[in-house]
């Protein structure tokens, strides 16, 4: 024994004499010692690394560089949880830390090299942060960034009927792309790169949705581009007349489909008629009589459909009696009215200035203007009792700037109190594109120059002459020229918005009548008020010079309306809305407008045409006697509002779906439908949340349209408003109560207990609170927090965190640590499965000179990206496992929970077969245990459900 | 008269008694079973000389202890089942399997690194169970008209308290030693052998029953040292060497004997039983052993190692109180015995599955672990598998080791044509704490 001890003693002495520890001396700075390790320093790579970190903390960059290089000589791979000796692990990032040391020594190229090596081995937020930072400094120093980033967006679908569109593309830069935002929402970019592909779902709302992609490079250069996506969730407006049986023995399906997005096709009983994306498609289609039912479906470019099912007619077109408006309902009424009409004829004179110019000196000649003027003159004299001496016609060479303005002044100046004056202009009009206003429109006189605007007659001249004078009862300007709608620029009163009198009532006689007697009484009343009205052949648009019968399109229908009118008295608004507007618009291309000059000389009266005695009597004789029953029917129709039907919905309904398809059909037996709107109304304060005007051709009897509405949780009030051409209004309201499907509710999201963070260098509360609020704000998780910190402080140990989650009935625990240094902040978080304390995901963020919230927001972007909500289907039930068709490619993770649910009985519209809702039912929850690229194995928590599951059931990640 | 008759009978039956006694005398020092330390090391087949980087290092290579950067402690237990399928070609009725199972504390240690005189040093205190004596045999011997049934039980162990010290000599060269104190007063260092031979037979028309019982208790006391070196020529390669010094242990041998004989047909003839006891001071020279190993770290979480270990069993000598030296392996005199050194070869590997939270080790090893015998060693082979889990500062390891040898032990009990197949299953579990 002694011998052994002697030998050992000798050996120890030998060691003590010969041994030498190689260690750099620690350095003291500001009362803190740097260059130290927690354990024994044995010249192993982890010792050098740890000491290097300590030096770096103190800003001793040369010393830290030396240590990191020494560590790298021995072990050169960056890695989390690297084994040192035995079962000891450490996060070992020598390349990264060396890169940072080099950065602070301004050796940027070397730093970049080291940081790139680090990232090629192991991704870390700190390395990414410093690599970007170093790249930025080097770019700025060497002026390497000459161009802003470029954005190449994959063309998004220009029109969509969905609630979101996917925006994808590539951002490239001559240096590095650092930041991408789509409509202000950031795309997750961990590290800058010369080219980054992006993809994001962007919510869209009906109408035009500008989608802006912003890309910023490392040095801050910004590029922004905007793409517009039209969101159209409304089916085409479909108007189908009551079918007739033609002489050829077919149904004649007539009508039109209109959609702002364009009509893709029309299907009539499954026969497809391509519509080539036309905004408006006129239908005139013969259909065999063998058809059991007539179903017309119009589909727009966005994919919305409108369906109309039409009853089969039982009569031939030749059998259809010609309906004409009757103005009386009883003999007594006739007598009274005729007397009043005769009295009215004796009040005041009718004057007219009619201008028609075909042959311009400089402008392209027109073909129909002179003929229109002459025809109007003739009809005014012949049917409406205008005295020949009271009509002045100016055509071609007579219609100069001077003669026109002089005539206007002369007539306006000579009108007496009860006189009426009509001005008709048919010729070229022009628009000052730099001044699209009431003064931006012009009539071009015959000698008008192409270039010199001073040779044109401005709207303001016309308005000043006719609007300023005190005399004259009713003055009407009818302009059949391009851009004539500018006369109404500040006061348009198109057919959609009938003019109102001073008491706010609609001032067309037709709008208020309840019988023929009332109709004329009302006209006479309106005629007694002053008016300064304008009827324009179009809006701010060119109008057609070619129509029918050597007349322009507008003139043809205007003259025709005047010719066909059988009312002894009729106001201009009534003429406009009862047939003129519809007829012109039906041919497409231009939309006449009616309105008033904005002047105090207008009291809301009407310019009234009085049928001359002969014309009036003949019509009264023939019409009333011939078909008085039809007259009564038509008149009765005038006073009834349109009927509204919403297929598949009744007044109150509870659904689980997020979107509702409102299939609306409206019918009006009178003058046709003028306006149709869908309003979504806040049930609490009755505010209109969303108003969608469905605009088609006014005057149709039947309209069909579909509207897809986004439903919020709770009550959704929809009001369908429909007015006919004479202002009769019908509202229909439905309330759809949307219950959130349990599987989609926030309460069904993965529940996460946010545990205390271990924070080095600062109190933990601020970090925890900020992180908690960001998690709640993300809406992705069901966050369980609110721990009383003082009473149940728990460690950031994973097991403790899982235990904490279990105690709070959370499925996951989120814990982590923060490292707060002088100028930097680093956060590492771990998502831990409460069931088995397994870590299912880790993330980190690093920043300098930043705040906690910014980093927490960045972390949240990563977390949301990491835990997507994905829906799938059960593929197979196998023993105790359920196979579902979502896997790694859907970015789900082992440990994530899925809810199995049954979509339940589908609720279908009995007529259309459209799926309106399904009554979903949660079946159970499972945990993902095994992942394959396209599928995964989930193990239910309650094995009793396994026998009840099958491949008709769905799954959604919590 | 009766007594005289008894002695006559004894003389007649003496060969049978002597035969049984002879068997077991020779079994007394059958090589004790060496016990390894630590589930991690044994999961790697015991190839740990060049690794020795945890708290069990003091038993494998004290030089490796210096690698510990922070304090550690370990607790190891083992549980084994040994099955010996004995064959007696000269006495087939004795054939059969004999098995023994036991669970014990295997190892305890605490290591504390420190710096002194600007040098890295470490001290460690260890308890180590080194040899196991558990054996349980029961068999019959039939010779002519007589038959005996024999029971042999042996249990006990040798263990040591070790104080280890390690120091870094130069940057990548470490030296360490463990001083082992084998003292029954400190830790169990004793074993006991109990033998009983029950006989019956007929001679000259008289049936008889006989009983022979002996008990031998040994206590053991000694001191030796393990001296270890660890050298890291390159970062991924370590080479280790260990020397376990020979030593002479003092043995206190307590012996007692009882014999009796009874004739069933002559109940009145009851010769007096024979009882004897004695206490003797003996010595046992424990042989020197040394080994060398190499380990290569392919990646941070995968390493493989190889050990070669030699034990000079020829120096394993028992000296009785009269000064007679015999080999415990052959029970022959030292000069008559031909015991050669054994060379163990152990190969192992360890792979760590490192997750965010856990370390899951996967260990495997194979070994050749010959047992000393007359002439050439008996071949014993084995393999081991290990795994476990490490969470934070606590690391739990489990290792399963299987040792087997076929037709071994034929150098003993040659007159009975003895040989055996050995089959041993051992489960090790260890917990290592990092402080």
Keywords:
heterodimer, A: 958 residues, alpha+beta, six-stranded antiparallel sheet, 35% strand, elongated, B: 435 residues, 63% strand, disordered N terminus
Task: Outline the structure in words.
Chain A has 958 residues and is an alpha+beta fold. Chain A contains 18 helices and 49 strands. In chain A, the strands form twelve sheets. In chain A, strands 5, 6, 7, 8, 9, 10 and 11 form a seven-stranded mixed beta sheet that branches. In chain A, strands 12, 13, 14, 15, 16 and 17 form a six-stranded antiparallel beta sheet that branches. In chain A, strands 19-18-20-24-25-27 form a six-stranded mixed beta sheet, sandwiched between helices. In chain A, helix 4 (94-104) packs antiparallel against helix 5 (108-121) and helix 9 (401-414) runs parallel beside helix 10 (459-468). The radius of gyration of chain A is 41 Å and the shape is elongated. Chain A starts with a helix and ends with a strand. Residues 315-335, 491-507, 509-516, 617-638 and 787-792 of chain A have low confidence and may be disordered. With 435 residues, chain B is mainly β. In chain B, 8% of the residues lie in helices and 63% in strands. Chain B is built from three helices and 21 strands. Chain B has helices at 2-27, 39-43, 57-60; strands at 33-34, 72-88, 96-116, 119-132, 135-143, 146-170, 173-183, 190-203, 206-234, 237-244, 247-263, 274-286, 289-299, 302-311, 317-319, 325-326, 342-354, 358-368, 381-391, 394-408, 418-434. Chain B has a 21-stranded antiparallel beta sheet that branches. In chain B, a hairpin with a 2-residue loop joins strand 6 (146-170) and strand 7. The longest helix of chain B is centred in the first third of the chain and has 26 residues, at 2-27. The termini of chain B are far apart. At the A-B interface, helix 1, helix 2 and strand 3 of A face strand 3, strand 6, strand 7 and strand 9 of B.
């Amino acid at each position: 024994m002694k011998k052994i001890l002697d030998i050992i003693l000798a050996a120890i002495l030998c060691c003590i004499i010969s041994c030498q520890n190689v260690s750099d001396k620690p350095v003291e700075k500001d009362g803190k010692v740097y260059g130290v390790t927690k354990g024994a320093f044995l010249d192993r790579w982890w010792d050098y690394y740890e000491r290097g970190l300590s030096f770096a903390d103190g800003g001793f960059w040369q010393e830290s560089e030396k240590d990191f290089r020494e560590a790298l000589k021995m072990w050169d791979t960056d890695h989390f949880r690297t084994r040192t000796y035995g079962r000891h692990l450490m996060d070992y990032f020598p390349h990264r830390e060396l890169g940072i040391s080099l950065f602070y020594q301004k050796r940027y190229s070397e730093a970049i090299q080291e940081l790139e090596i680090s990232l090629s081995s192991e991704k870390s937020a700190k390395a990414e942060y410093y690599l970007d930072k170093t790249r930025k400094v080097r770019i700025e120093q060497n002026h390497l960034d000459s161009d802003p980033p470029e954005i190449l967006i994959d063309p998004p679908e220009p029109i969509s009927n969905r609630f979101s569109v996917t925006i994808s593309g590539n951002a490239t830069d001559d240096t590095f792309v650092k930041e991408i935002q789509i409509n202000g929402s950031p795309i997750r970019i961990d590290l800058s790169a010369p080219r980054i592909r992006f993809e994001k779902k962007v919510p869209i709302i009906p109408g035009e949705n500008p989608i802006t992609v912003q890309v910023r490079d490392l040095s801050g250069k910004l590029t922004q581009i905007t793409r517009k996506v039209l969101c159209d969730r409304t089916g085409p407006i479909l108007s189908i007349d009551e079918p007739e049986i033609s002489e050829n023995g077919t149904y004649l399906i007539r009508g039109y489909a209109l959609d702002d997005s364009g009509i893709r096709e029309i299907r009539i009983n499954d026969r497809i008629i391509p519509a080539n994306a036309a905004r408006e498609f006129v239908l005139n289609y013969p259909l065999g009589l063998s058809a059991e039912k007539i179903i017309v479906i119009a589909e727009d470019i966005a994919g919305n459909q409108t369906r109309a099912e039409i009853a089969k007619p039982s009569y031939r077109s030749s059998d259809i009696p010609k309906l004409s408006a009757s103005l009386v309902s009883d003999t007594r009424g006739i007598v009274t009215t005729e007397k009043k009409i005769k009295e009215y004829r004796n009040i005041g004179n009718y004057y007219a200035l009619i201008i028609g110019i075909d042959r311009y000196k400089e402008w392209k000649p027109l073909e129909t203007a002179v003929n229109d003027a002459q025809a109007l003159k003739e009809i005014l004299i012949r049917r409406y009792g205008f005295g020949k001496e009271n009509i002045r016609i100016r055509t071609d060479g007579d219609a100069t700037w001077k003669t026109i303005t002089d005539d206007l002044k002369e007539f306006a100046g000579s009108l007496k109190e009860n006189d009426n004056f009509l001005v008709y202009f048919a010729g070229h009009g022009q628009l000052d594109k730099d001044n699209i206003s009431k003064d931006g429109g012009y009539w071009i006189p015959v000698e008008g120059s192409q270039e010199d605007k001073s040779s044109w007659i401005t709207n303001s001249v016309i308005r000043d002459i006719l609007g300023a004078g005190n005399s004259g009862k009713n003055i009407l300007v009818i302009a059949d020229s391009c851009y004539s709608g500018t006369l109404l620029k500040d006061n348009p009163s198109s057919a959609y918005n009938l003019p109102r009198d001073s008491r706010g009532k609609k001032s067309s006689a037709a709008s208020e009548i309840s019988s023929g007697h009332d109709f004329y009484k009302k006209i006479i009343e309106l005629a007694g008020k002053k008016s300064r009205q304008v009827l324009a052949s179009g809006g701010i648009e060119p109008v057609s010079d070619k129509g029918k019968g050597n007349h322009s399109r507008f003139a043809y229908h205007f003259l025709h309306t005047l010719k066909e009118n059988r009312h002894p008295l009729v106001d201009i608004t009534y003429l406009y809305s009862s047939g003129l507007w519809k007829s012109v618009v039906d041919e497409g291309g231009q939309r006449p407008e009616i309105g008033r000059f904005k002047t105090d000389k207008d009291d809301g009266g009407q310019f009234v045409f009085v049928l001359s005695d002969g014309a009036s009597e003949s019509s009264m004789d023939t019409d009333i006697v011939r078909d008085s029953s039809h007259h009564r029917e038509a008149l009765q129709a005038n006073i009834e509002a349109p009927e509204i039907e919403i297929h598949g919905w009744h007044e109150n309904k509870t659904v689980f779906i997020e979107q509702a398809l409102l299939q609306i059909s409206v019918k009006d037996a009178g003058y046709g439908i003028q306006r149709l709107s869908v309003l979504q109304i806040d049930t609490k304060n009755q505010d209109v949340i969303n108003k969608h005007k469905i605009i088609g051709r006014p005057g149709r009897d039947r309209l069909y349209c579909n509207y897809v509405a986004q439903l919020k949780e709770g009550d959704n009030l929809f009001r369908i408003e429909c007015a006919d051409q004479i202002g009769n209004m019908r509202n229909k309201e439905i309330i759809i109560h949307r219950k959130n499907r349990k599987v989609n509710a926030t309460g069904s999201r993965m529940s996460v207990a946010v545990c205390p963070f271990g924070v080095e260098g600062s109190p933990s509360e601020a970090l925890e609170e900020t992180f908690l609020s960001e998690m709640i704000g993300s809406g992705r998780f069901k966050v369980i927090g609110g721990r009383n910190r003082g009473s149940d402080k728990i460690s950031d140990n994973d097991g403790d965190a899982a235990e904490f989650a279990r105690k709070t009935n959370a499925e996951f625990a989120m814990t982590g640590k923060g490292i707060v240094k002088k100028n930097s902040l680093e956060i590492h978080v771990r998502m831990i499965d409460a069931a088995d304390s397994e870590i299912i995901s880790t993330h980190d963020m690093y920043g300098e000179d930043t705040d906690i919230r910014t980093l927490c927001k960045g972390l949240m972007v990563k977390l949301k990206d990491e835990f997507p909500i994905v829906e799938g289907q059960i593929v197979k039930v196998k023993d105790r496992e359920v196979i579902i068709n979502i896997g790694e490619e859907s970015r789900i993770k082992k440990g994530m929970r899925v809810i199995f649910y049954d979509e339940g009985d589908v609720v279908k519209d009995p007529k259309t077969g459209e799926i309106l809702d399904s009554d979903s039912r949660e079946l159970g929850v499972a945990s993902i245990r095994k992942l394959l690229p396209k599928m995964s194995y989930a193990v239910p928590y309650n094995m009793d459900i396994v026998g009840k599951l099958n491949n008709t059931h769905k799954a959604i990640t919590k | 008269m009766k007594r005289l008759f008894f002695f006559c009978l004894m003389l007649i039956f003496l060969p049978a008694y002597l035969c049984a006694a002879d068997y077991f005398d020779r079994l007394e020092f059958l090589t004790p079973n060496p016990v390894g330390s630590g589930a991690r090391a044994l999961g790697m087949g015991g190839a740990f000389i060049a690794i020795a980087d945890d708290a069990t290092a003091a038993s494998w290579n004290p030089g490796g202890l210096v690698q510990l950067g922070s304090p550690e402690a370990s607790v190891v237990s083992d549980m084994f089942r040994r099955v010996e399928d004995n064959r007696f070609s000269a006495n087939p009725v004795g054939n059969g399997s004999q098995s023994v199972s036991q669970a014990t504390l295997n190892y305890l240690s605490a290591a504390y690194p420190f710096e002194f005189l600007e040098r890295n040093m470490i001290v460690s205190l260890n308890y180590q169970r080194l040899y196991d004596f558990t054996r349980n045999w029961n068999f019959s011997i039939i010779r002519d008209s007589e038959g005996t049934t024999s029971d042999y039980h042996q249990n006990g162990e040798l263990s040591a308290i070790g104080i280890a010290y390690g120091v870094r000599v130069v940057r990548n060269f470490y030296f360490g030693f463990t001083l082992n104190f084998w003292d029954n007063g400190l830790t169990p260092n004793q074993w006991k052998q109990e033998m009983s031979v029950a006989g019956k037979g007929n001679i000259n028309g008289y049936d008889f029953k006989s009983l022979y019982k002996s008990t031998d208790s040994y206590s053991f006391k000694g001191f030796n040292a393990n001296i270890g070196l660890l050298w890291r020529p390159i970062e991924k390669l370590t080479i280790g060497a260990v020397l376990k010094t020979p030593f002479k242990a003092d043995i206190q041998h307590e012996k007692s004997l009882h014999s009796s004989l009874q004739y069933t047909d002559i109940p009145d003839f009851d010769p007096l039983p024979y009882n004897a006891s004695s206490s003797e001071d003996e010595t046992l020279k424990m042989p020197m052993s040394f080994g060398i190993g190499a380990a290569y770290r392919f990646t941070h979480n995968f390493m493989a190692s190889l050990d070669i270990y030699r034990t000079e069993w020829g120096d394993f000598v028992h000296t009785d109180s009269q000064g007679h030296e015999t080999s415990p392996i052959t029970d022959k005199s030292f000069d008559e015995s031909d015991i050669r050194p054994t060379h163990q070869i152990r190969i192992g590997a360890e792979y760590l599955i490192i997750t965010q939270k856990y370390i899951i080790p996967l260990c495997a090893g194979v070994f050749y672990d010959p047992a000393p015998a007359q002439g050439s060693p008996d071949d014993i082979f084995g393999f081991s598998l290990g795994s476990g889990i490490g969470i934070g500062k606590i690391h739990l390891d489990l290792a399963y080791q299987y040792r087997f040898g076929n037709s071994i032990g034929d150098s003993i009990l040659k007159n009975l044509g003895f040989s055996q197949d050995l089959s041993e299953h051992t489960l090790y579990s260890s917990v290592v704490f990092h402080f």
